[in-house]
Amino acid sequence: MKVIVVGGGAAGMMAAYAAASYGCDVTLLEKNEKLGKKIYITGKGRCNFTNACDVEDLFQNVVSNPKFMYSAFYSFTNQQVMDFVADHGTPYKVERGERVFPVSDHASDVTGAFQRALKSVGVKIMLNTEVKGLRVQDGVICGVDTVDGPMEAERVIVCTGGLSYPTTGSTGDGVRFAEKLGHSIATLRPALVPMNTKEDYIPAMQGLSLKNVELTIYHGKKKLYDEFGEMLFTHFGVSGPLCLSASSRVGKYLDDASLQAEIDLKPKLDKDTLDQRLLREFKGNENKNISNVLGSLLPKKMIPVFMEILEFAEDKKINSVTVEERNEIIRLLKHFPFTIVSLRSFKEAIVTQGGVSVKEINPSTMESKLVEGLYFAGEVLDIDCYTGGFNLQVAWSTGYLAGMCAAS
To answer: Rounded mean pLDDT of the chain?
Structure first.
């Protein structure tokens, strides 16, 4: 069986390995000068290549179409990925949040493990080879068209990624191939990406990182997102773990509307406890400026913003604070507001949301329901996850399942 794999990223390398290990004659085509180019920048260059959670917990971290992943996750589990990488010369370690990294902290070692694996099963690798289209005859795949001419194959596995980090070669080729053959495409948008905000006071806090806060985002009265963790203010808006995860949940609502967000800066304290805290801070400091007391409750960069929102004069004294104003301080501590207007671009997105509709892909094999012998795997599909190694696990699992089934 002659198999061509288009795209030498995570899903493509795994698909090529699986197909070859089941006896196929496999050629892996990559338009870049090296394999796994996007892998080199994952995990800030360290490559968080999977998550060591229970297999059942993988599904909870898939944002789009988790049920589709059932066969794939169980065909090649996260433990099998860890064993695979270790067996091919790259030992791993498990860190906070069950994130898995190579012991060396070098993403290149993960790619190295796959290159050794591909060599061991005889995969032919063709770099700097761009595929321009798929060759189909009577509803059956028969090869690909490259910039250098046609190549024949009985099976083709498309693993071209999405649109995130386009400098790594993720330019939506596979989505275009699929659409041309009649596949439906779920709207492509950046995911796990920072977000732009409306208010001037957000960039005024640029560089400020908040820990142990709760972020809530609303679409009208509907609560879209509510999580506890860390976030960061930037010159354009908000970023950090909470905001990246939120972007995957709220992105589709930003297509035609802004979203209201609020931060609970003291999520472990209720309003009564905060009021008592404020009164203790006020006691004995009646002649001091209110900004001095706020310093015990807020990061320094937030104090001018609080004063602005509360419309307090810079020299406002504690002894002039009314009960209503004290309640406003508490309200702002529990409901610090801002408006999300849009997502940042694909250049900053960790993954792509949307892609080839999974309704037209057999979840047990990764084969197209429209074109016989055509398979899809990885980010080209309408599947995306939260951070923590889950998106790469999708790539490994769908790639392995596609390669194995293409060999049958």
So the answer is: 96
Q: How far apart are CA 240 and CA 243, in angstroms?
A: 6
Report the alpha-carbon distance of residue 292 to residue 281 in Å, rounded. 10
**What is the distance between the alpha carbons of residues 315 and 333, in angstroms, rounded to a whole number?**
20
Q: Please check whether residues 291 and 327 belong to one and the same domain.
A: yes
Give the span between the Cα atoms of 159 and 152, in whole angstroms.
Answer: 18
Instruction: Say how many C-beta atoms besides its own lie within 10 A of residue 55's C-beta.
Output: 12
Whether 284 and 298 map to the same domain: the answer is yes
Tally of domains in the chain:
2
Please indicate, yes or no, whether residues 381 and 333 belong to a single structural domain of this protein.
no
For the beta sheet containing 92-94, the strands, ordered from the edge strand earlier in sequence to the opposite edge, are: 50-51, 99-102, 92-94
Question: By residue range, what is the domain housing residue 288?
Answer: 194-344
Band of residue 169 on the pLDDT scale cut at 50, 70, 90: low
**DSSP state letter for 104:** T
Tokens of residue 121, six digits: 């099963």
pLDDT digits (tens, 9 = 90+) for 199-253: 999 999 999 999 999 999 999 999 999 999 999 999 999 999 999 999 999 999 9
Q: Which of 300, 315, 344 is the last residue of a domain?
A: 344
Q: What radius of gyration do the chain's Cα atoms show?
A: 25
Distance CA 50, CA 63 (A): 16
DSSP letter assigned to residue 252: G
Alpha carbon dihedral 81, 87, 91, 92, in 10-degree steps, equals: 10
* 226 and 320 co-located in one domain: yes
Angle made by CA atoms 168, 7, 84, in degrees to the nearest 5: 100
User: Is the Cβ–Cβ distance between 112 and 87 less than 8 Å?
Assistant: no
Q: What is the pLDDT of residue 253?
A: 95
Buried-state track 304-317, b at ≥16 Cβ within 10 A, e below 16: ebbbeebebeeebe
Closest CA to 114 of 31, 170, 24, 38: 38
CA torsion through residues 302, 307, 308, 313, sign? negative
Q: What share of the chain is helix, strand, coil (3-state, %, to 5)?
A: 40, 25, 35
The conformation of residue 161, written as its DSSP 8-state character, comes to: -
Q: Which string of DSSP letters, residue by residue, matches 35-81?
A: S-TTGGGGGGGT---EE-S-HHHHHHTB-S-GGGGHHHHHHS-HHHH
